[in-house]
Design brief:
Elements (H helix, E strand, L loop, with lengths): L1 H35 L3 H8 L1 H17 L4 H20 L1 H4 L10 H7 L3 H4 L5 H5 L2 H6 L2 H11 L2 H4 L4 H14 L10 H15 L6 H16 L1 H12 L8 H16 L5 H17 L2 H13 L5 H27 L22 H20 L49 H16 L2 H32 L3 H29 L5 H21 L7 H11 L22 E2 L5 E2 L7 E8 L4 E7 L17 H20 L1 H10 L6 H17 L1 H12 L1 E6 L5 E7 L1 H29 L31
Antiparallel strand pairs: 1-2, 3-4, 5-6
Helix pairs in contact: 1-4, 1-18, 1-19, 1-20, 3-17, 3-28, 4-17, 4-18, 4-20, 10-13, 12-14, 13-14, 15-16, 18-28, 19-20, 19-23, 19-27, 22-23, 22-27, 22-28, 22-29, 22-30, 23-26, 24-26, 24-27, 24-30
GO biological process, one term: monoatomic ion transport
Pfam families: OATP
Membrane topology: Multi-pass membrane protein
Length: 764
C-alpha cells in the first residue's frame, strides 16, 4: 500500500497547488490591469479564458483519459498547468511598460509666483488670489480678511527693508515638506495669523512677511512642490484644493488618453489561461476514480474528506501569497514616495505565478513518471524457510497490493475503428445521463454553483458597502470563517459518512438536511441589516438627488473626488473631505495612516474624521459571520457524501466521464453566467455611479443598502431552494445506491488482486 500512499500524497499536493493558482489569479487582476492598462471588462473576459479551455475539452479528456494510464494523464495536465502559470507571468518580462509623460505645464504655471507677487508692494489681495494660498485659506476667513482691510489692502506697501527681511526669513524657515500640503508649515502659520487679525489681536505686518516668505519658497522648491502635489492628487481621498484636484483630473485624463492597445500581453495571458483550463480538466475527473479503484470502499469517505480538505485550504494559501506579492512593487524597486497603500501601486503579481509554477512542476513530473509496476515480492512459505513444500501444503504469501493506474472496469477498444470509438463515446455519455440519481445530483450541483460562485465573487464588495468592512479585511474574514468552516465541514462529512455507514438514501437525506440548514442560515442574512458609514452617505445624498456639490464646497473642484466618507461631531457623513470643504489634512500617525481634516467650510471650527461617523453594524457583522461559519460547515458536510452518490450513480466504467460531464455542465451553466447574474443584481441596487473616461457609468460607488441586502440574499435563497428540492428527488431514487459496501468482483489479472491458496490435499 506504500505506492498508494505516495500517489495520494502527490495527488493532494498538486490539487492544493492548483487551488492556490486559481485563487491567486483573483488577487493579481488589479495589478495586471494597472501595469498593462487593461480595462476591467477585458480583464474579466481574460479571467474567464480558463473556462473557455475547460468546457470544450473536459468531456473528451475525461473519456479518453480514463482509458489510459491515469497517473500519467494527471501528471501531464498539471505539468501543462505549471507551464501555463509561467506563461502568465511572462508578459512582465517580454512587454516592458513605459510610464506616460504628463504635461504639467498648467500646474507649474499656477504655482509659479507672478511678477506682481515678487514685488515689494504686493498687496494682500494679490496674495489671496495666488492659487496655493487661495486653496488653503477657508472661504469665510478669506472674505472677512479682505473686508477687514477694506481698500487699504490695495495700496498697502511693504517697505524695502521689511521685504528683504521676509526673503531672509524664508531661508531660515526653509521648506517644510508635508505629505499633502505644499509647504504646510508656513500655510498653517498664515492661517493662524489671519485668524489672529480677525480677532483683533494683531496687525498685517507679520502676515505680509509670512505671505512673502511662502511666495519666495515657491521659486526655490518648484520641483518638490509638483512632486508633493502629485502625491496628494493620487491619494485615496480628495480635499478642498482646486489646484490639486485639477492635477488629479490631469492624471485621470492621461490614463484615459493612453491607448489601451496592449494586445500582446493580453493575448499571451489569455492563451496561457486557456491552456490552464485544459490542464485542470485532468486531476479531478481522473484522480477521484483512480483513488476509488485503489482504496477500500469503507475507507473512501475518509480519503475523499482528507483530499477535499487539503484542496479547500488552497484558496487560503492563495490569498496569503497574493498579500505577500502585492506588498512588493512589480519592478522589485519601489519608486520614492510611493507605498503599497497608494492607489497607483502595482504589486509584483508575476512573482506569485512563478512561485506556484516552480512548486507545481516537481510533483507533476513525479506523477507523470510514476512507475507503473512495483518491485516484485519474493514468495516464501509461511514459516519463513526457503522450502517450497512443508507437510504436504504450500502457502503463497499475499503480495503487496498493486496501484491500479488503468480503470479496472474499462472496455477494450483497441480493435475499434474511429467511427466505432466515437459511437462508444456517445453511448457512454448517453448511459450516464439515463441515471435519474446522476441527473438530479448534477442539476443540484449546477444550481448550487450558480448561486454560490457569483455570490462569493461579489461578497467582498457587499461586506464593504453594506457593513463598511475594508476589502483586505473582508478577504481575511472570508478565509477565516467561510473557507475554513467549509474545510472543517468537509472533514466532518467524511467522518460521519464512514462512522454511521451512510448508504444510498441515508446519504442523500443527509445531504438534503445539511443543505437545508445552509439555506436557512442564508435566509437569516436577509434580516441582518444596519447603517454603515457608506450607507449613511447614500441616505444623505437622497435629499439632494445625489448631487453632493453644495455652496460650501462649490469652490473646491470636487467633481472627480473619490468616495472617502468623513463625519463631523454630530455624525453627519460627507462624501469626501473635499465635499466637506476641508482644506487641511492632519496625519496623526504615519504608520497607521490616522487622518483628520480641518479648516472645513461646511463644518467651520471642527475637525472631521471617520471615527466620528455613526456605525451600528458591529453586532450585525458578528451575527453575519456566525451564519457564515455555521452555514459553511453545514455545506461542507454534504460534499463527500454528495460526491460518493454521484460516483455510485453510474456504471463503474463511466465514473471519469460522469465527473467530466458534470464539470462541463457546471462550467457552462453555472460558473460562466453566475458572475454576470450577480453583477446585474448588484448594479440594480446602485445609487451613485463612478464615471468612466467616456463619461459613462463605471463601477458603483454607493448602493441602496436595503435593496442590495434583500435582492442579493433572496436571489441566493431562491436558487438554492430549487437545489434543495432536487436533493429530495435524489434521495427518493437513491435507495439502491451502494456507497460503502465492497463489490464482489471476479479476479482481475490486470489489477493483480492477491490470493491466498488453500492447503492442497495430499492426493495432489
Amino acid at each position: 500500500m506504500q505506492r498508494v500512499y505516495i500517489f495520494l500524497l502527490l495527488f493532494s499536493v498538486v490539487l492544493f497547488l492548483e487551488a492556490i493558482g486559481g485563487t491567486y489569479m483573483v488577487s493579481a487582476v488589479q495589478s495586471i490591469e494597472r501595469q498593462f492598462q487593461i480595462p476591467s471588462k477585458l480583464s474579466g473576459f481574460m479571467v474567464s479564458a480558463g473556462d473557455f479551455g475547460y468546457i470544450p475539452t473536459v468531456m473528451f479528456i475525461a473519456y479518453f483519459g480514463s482509458k489510459g494510464n491515469r497517473a500519467k494523464w494527471i501528471g501531464g495536465g498539471t505539468i501543462l498547468a505549471a507551464l501555463s502559470y509561467m506563461l502568465i507571468a511572462s508578459p512582465n518580462f517580454i512587454f516592458p511598460v513605459t510610464q506616460p509623460k504628463l504635461n504639467l505645464t498648467a500646474v507649474e504655471t499656477r504655482i509659479t509666483p507672478s511678477a506682481t507677487l515678487l514685488l515689494s508692494n504686493a498687496s494682500i489681495a494679490d496674495y489671496m488670489i495666488y492659487a496655493p494660498i487661495y486653496d488653503r485659506i477657508p472661504l469665510i476667513m478669506r472674505e472677512k480678511l479682505l473686508e477687514h482691510f477694506g481698500e487699504q489692502h490695495r495700496i498697502g506697501r511693504i517697505q524695502r527693508d521689511f521685504f528683504d527681511n521676509a526673503v531672509n526669513t524664508s531661508k531660515k524657515i526653509g521648506h517644510h515638506d508635508n505629505l499633502y500640503l505644499v509647504d504646510g508649515a508656513i500655510l498653517s502659520k498664515i492661517v493662524d495669523q489671519v485668524d489672529s487679525i480677525l480677532r483683533g489681536n494683531g496687525g498685517d505686518g507679520e502676515l505680509r512677511e509670512l505671505l512673502a516668505t511662502y511666495v519666495h519658497n515657491r521659486l526655490n522648491h518648484s520641483d518638490i512642490d509638483v512632486a508633493n502635489m502629485k502625491r496628494s492628487a493620487i491619494a485615496p481621498f480628495s480635499f478642498c484644493s482646486k489646484l490639486i484636484n485639477e492635477l488629479r483630473q490631469i492624471l485621470k485624463n492621461a490614463k484615459c488618453d493612453r491607448s489601451v492597445s496592449n494586445f500582446g500581453p493580453f493575448v499571451v495571458m489569455f492563451t496561457a489561461l486557456v491552456l490552464l483550463g485544459i490542464g485542470r480538466t485532468m486531476p479531478w475527473s481522473l484522480g477521484v476514480p483512480m483513488i476509488d479503484d485503489n482504496v477500500k470502499r469503507k475507507s473512501l469517505p475518509a480519503y475523499f474528506a482528507g483530499i477535499s480538505f487539503i484542496r479547500i485550504l488552497g484558496p487560503i494559501a492563495g490569498f496569503l501569497i497574493g498579500s505577500f506579492c502585492n506588498k512588493l512593487y512589480y519592478t522589485l524597486t519601489t519608486p520614492p514616495g510611493l507605498t503599497a497603500k497608494d492607489p497607483t501601486w502595482i504589486g509584483a503579481w508575476w512573482l506569485g505565478f512563478l512561485i506556484v509554477s516552480i512548486l507545481l512542476i516537481v510533483p507533476s513530473c513525479a506523477l507523470f513518471f510514476f512507475p507503473s509496476k512495483p518491485r516484485r515480492t519474493k514468495v516464501v512459505p509461511k514459516n519463513g524457510t526457503s522450502a517450497e513444500q512443508m507437510n504436504g501444503t504450500l502457502t503463497v504469501l499475499k503480495p503487496e497490493r498493486e496501484l491500479s493506474f488503468f480503470d479496472k472496469h474499462k472496455e477494450d477498444e483497441k480493435n475499434l475503428t474511429a467511427e466505432e470509438k466515437f459511437r462508444a463515446f456517445r453511448e457512454s455519455y448517453t448511459e450516464v445521463i439515463k441515471s435519474k440519481v446522476y441527473r438530479g445530483a448534477v442539476i443540484s450541483r449546477v444550481l448550487d454553483s450558480l448561486a454560490f460562485r457569483g455570490y462569493m465573487v461579489f461578497l467582498p464588495k457587499y461586506l464593504e458597502n453594506h457593513y463598511g468592512i475594508p476589502q483586505y479585511k473582508a478577504h481575511q474574514l472570508m478565509a477565516m470563517f467561510g473557507v475554513f468552516g467549509f474545510a472543517l465541514g468537509t472533514a466532518s462529512g467524511g467522518i460521519i459518512t464512514r462512522r454511521f455507514r451512510l448508504n444510498g438514501r441515508c446519504a442523500a437525506l443527509f445531504v438534503f438536511v445539511v443543505s437545508t440548514i445552509n439555506l436557512c442560515l442564508f435566509a437569516v442574512k436577509i434580516f441582518l441589516g444596519c447603517q454603515s458609514v457608506v450607507n449613511t452617505v447614500g441616505l444623505n445624498g437622497m435629499v439632494t438627488n445625489f448631487n453632493y456639490t453644495v455652496p460650501c464646497n462649490a469652490d473646491c473642484g470636487c467633481e472627480s473626488a473619490p468616495l472617502f466618507p468623513i463625519c463631523n461631531s454630530n455624525g453627519y457623513a460627507y462624501y469626501s473631505p473635499c465635499h466637506a470643504g476641508c482644506r487641511e489634512v492632519i496625519l496623526n500617525n504615519a504608520d497607521a495612516y490616522h487622518l483628520e481634516f480641518a479648516s472645513c467650510d461646511c463644518s467651520p471650527g471642527e475637525v472631521l474624521k471617520k471615527e466620528l461617523c455613526n456605525d451600528d453594524c458591529k453586532m450585525m457583522i458578528i451575527a453575519f459571520f456566525i451564519c457564515v461559519i455555521v452555514g459553511a460547515f453545514a455545506a461542507g458536510n454534504g460534499l463527500v457524501p454528495g460526491m460518493l452518490i454521484l460516483l455510485r450513480s453510474v456504471p463503474p466504467a463511466h465514473r471519469s466521464i460522469s465527473l467530466g460531464l458534470q464539470g462541463f455542465l457546471v462550467s457552462l451553466l453555472a460558473t460562466l453566467p453566475s458572475p454576470l447574474l450577480w453583477g446585474t443584481i448588484f448594479d440594480s441596487a446602485c445609487l451613485v455611479w463612478n464615471q468612466t473616461c467616456s463619461n459613462g457609468s463605471g463601477s458603483c460607488a454607493i448602493y441602496d443598502p436595503v435593496a442590495l441586502r434583500i435582492r442579493t440574499h433572496v436571489a441566493y435563497v431562491a436558487i438554492r431552494s430549487s437545489a434543495v428540492l432536487i436533493d429530495l428527488y435524489v434521495a427518493y431514487h437513491a435507495s439502491n445506491i451502494n456507497i460503502l459496501e465492497e463489490e464482489e468482483e471476479p479476479d482481475n489479472a490486470e489489477r493483480r488482486e492477491s490470493l491466498v491458496l488453500e492447503p492442497l490435499p495430499n492426493a495432489l
